[in-house]
Design goal:
The structure is a homodimer.
Chain A lengths: L3 E2 L9 E3 L32 H8 L4 E3 L2 H7 L7 E3 L1 H7 L4 E6 L10 H13 L4 E6 L3 H13 L2 E7 H6 L1 H9 L3 E5 L5 H9 L7 H14 L3 E3 L6 H20 L6 E5 L4 H17 L4 E7 L4 H4 L1 E6 L8 E6 L21 H8 L3 E6 L1 H15 L5 H20 L4 E6 L7 H8 L7 H9 L9
Parallel strand pairs in A: 5-15, 6-7, 6-9, 7-8, 10-11, 10-15, 11-14
Antiparallel strand pairs in A: 1-4, 2-3, 4-5, 12-13
Chain lengths: ~450, ~450
Amino acid sequence: MRTMFTLDQNDLPKRWYNVLPDLPTPLDPPLHPGTREPIEPAALLGLFARTCVEQEMSTDRFIDIPAPVLDVYRLWRPTPLMRAVHLERVLETPAHIYFKYEGASPTGSHKTNTAVPQAYYNKLEGTKALATETGAGQWGSALAFACQTFGMDCTVFMVRSSYDQKPYRKAMMSVFGARVHASPSRETRAGREALARDPNSFGSLGLAISEAVEAALAGQGTKYSLGSVLNHVLLHQTVIGLEAEQQMQSAGEFPDVVVACVGGGSNFGGLSLPFYRAARERKQATRFLAVEPTVCPSLTRGEYRYDFGDTAETTPLLRMHTLGHAFMPPPIHAGGLRYHGMAPIVSRLVEDGIVEPLAYDQLDVFASAVLFARSEGIIPAPETAHAVHAAVEIARECARTGDEKTILIGFSGHGHFDMGAYTAYLSGDLVRAEAGSNACTGTPAGARLYC
Amino acid sequence: MRTMFTLDQNDLPKRWYNVLPDLPTPLDPPLHPGTREPIEPAALLGLFARTCVEQEMSTDRFIDIPAPVLDVYRLWRPTPLMRAVHLERVLETPAHIYFKYEGASPTGSHKTNTAVPQAYYNKLEGTKALATETGAGQWGSALAFACQTFGMDCTVFMVRSSYDQKPYRKAMMSVFGARVHASPSRETRAGREALARDPNSFGSLGLAISEAVEAALAGQGTKYSLGSVLNHVLLHQTVIGLEAEQQMQSAGEFPDVVVACVGGGSNFGGLSLPFYRAARERKQATRFLAVEPTVCPSLTRGEYRYDFGDTAETTPLLRMHTLGHAFMPPPIHAGGLRYHGMAPIVSRLVEDGIVEPLAYDQLDVFASAVLFARSEGIIPAPETAHAVHAAVEIARECARTGDEKTILIGFSGHGHFDMGAYTAYLSGDLVRAEAGSNACTGTPAGARLYC
């Protein structure tokens, strides 16, 4: 039985899909951090490449992928779509489980899909260096790789808890020529202030963003690059869903359920937005499930309101689901999901009832991850494992009801750099964090767990 | 420009290719370790599955791949064939560089290709558990995965130097349910004796084999499984070359040079043997290059004679290139290439002038590995990096001569579990080992480096 659905490289999508003109409710504009008035695009040009700013606001439904970006995409794209028949057998489920495998990328996750165009546009516009933050290290490695490809410098502020958990991620960034600092660091004012408040801080994405933004503004010819949340990042990631649409077609199926993990929302958006459009055209009631950790539950427990993207209040304010920009999530192994906010596009679709959020504890998530690894051979990244767990839960429900659902998982990356997490899980060192989570989500704005 | 040549899963080879009937000179028979007379197949059944023993001696040119093995192969096969155009550009070479990417397997290397059928045949014949050794951990993870798939126990003796260098490999084996011991261990007589001689021994593949064989013979319903060297292992690996042949055809090319690294010879054999047959049929003078480390130079400096496969003299004697079964290679990062012997098939083809051996120092090898990673995005395993370096050298020669050679690299695996090696290389901690190597190869039988 055929279980791998490749796509000829000639069928690699030539355009990204922009959901903005197809949203049922338009997004609220980003606000200037000083004036709290809608921000002028020009005000963003100090941080971002002009083309990225244009794409952020664009109402074009499709945007061409530049030839030099396609040239780099071809190092690993199209990625395979797999049917997880071994997992189906273990679960004795009538469900058909597919997963789109972004672990095939150079750095092992979907993040390179946006790192490459962001580096390319910056290079075109004369930027010499990029600064960024990274949680689990997936985004940092991706931007390091992309900068390397276009001959640019790269500085990465890596959240301390991940920096300590994942030394090989730092090694990978070094192979790709990046400079890596644990965040909070002594390189920036934001970092030094955080260390003054708590010398043992394990950091957060919000804080690392403050450091990277500060470094970008201070650096000569340096700009900032964000790996999730923003519209143009989700746009670049739609290459995943556009490929998967063709591949599901060659498998003769259309998903009843599309499920992916959400940290900032780019992996989820990249897979699900093209299917959101396709489902509307087919008038099919596909469900879109966004899965987050219970200890950082921005969609399931956060408020939908304007908030800063970072801890130091330097970014524009976005209307999104947020736990408050001072929220400090506990150091769970899914470092890529430790973000207080959420992509405005994903937040909007949740408000409009199109995307359903779910939250799981990492202990349940790792149980499904090990089940997946033992049946399908691929060890999921802890982030990805959240989506895997949701799919396993649905497939088990199908086994009870006899429902032959087609489930599509956004398999954002492999866990080769997260094996310490698996060692902790298998040796019983991971604790259920739900109690802490409830405590946290009772006071979502700024509560700090484990203190 | 198309750079990825996938193969439809329906075109997955259904048969392995057995080179034995096509060898220009037949192999000399294995000898019994006690009598030194040709060994009866029955004498091997205590260690190996009957089907593996039959395949070891088979003169059938093609052998069917069992359906349940194909079913597991489909978790990752066919693997992609890639053209390394970015590397070609960096080298400004007219050469066409292709690589067959076995890093796409569950455990990140070609080793699963034989682990799966070996576990399957054992399962069919009633074996409950398998014991084995592993160098870099690639073989141990592959057998752990395969045993997991068929519901068998797995015990792995991992060479101490790799056990210390690669903790995540151990974690991966644990995810797949295997028990892992650092070798030399206190679990076996061979291990305890080695520790008595040298409590700080960093181990060797030869010694780990002794431990695994001893554990297999002592265990209830337990057999032994070898990840390289033997004919049936090379047989199973030919799925690589058989796929690559179809993919090169769809790229409209045939290789002038096939290059792969050699530890025990299975990766090299798996890619090159089908091309050896195809080149003969086309009457094409393809070169076959087998690349080893200068510090463990069995093909370039060893003797072609009968020798034991292991340190404790428990295995049958094979006629092969050997540095002597007591040879203790230094703890280089390409742990998978630290073996004193070589597959009899590869050794025979070297003697007959069909395969050309080459040896490189790891410092040169890592320079090419980083070059490859920075242009193609994939970080090679240190073993694989030996083949990459040879290909880079040839491509550079082509740049000088203007020769438009087509080079095919056997890309046996990625380096995600070897990042410590890259950190050591980038921080200048790796030393050139050539002086040691010369010292060693002057006295190839039993010489010990670094002492």
